[in-house]
Specification:
92 residues, alpha+beta, flat
Length: 92
Amino acid sequence: MEPTRDGDAVVDLLDVILRDGVILQADVIVTVADVPLVGISLRAAIAGMATMTDYGYFEAWDDEARRRVIPDEDGRTERPSATPDDDHRRER
């Protein structure tokens, strides 16, 4: 009997992660000779942008991106700036 490999497993996993999301959390303490030197606390949320905005992540980014793409009442869209400071320079 030969082992088989299911190639769809990775695609299914990626689909679930993008659709539902995943939160990874890790706490690491680096020690030398039983003396703690560095503490690292990591937290990452991984999901598709639709899921992230549904849960309230990246709301400001989403609003800004939509403002730049969706035409206003005059039918114009805002041109993206190179840096956030460029927006403030235009307002002055």
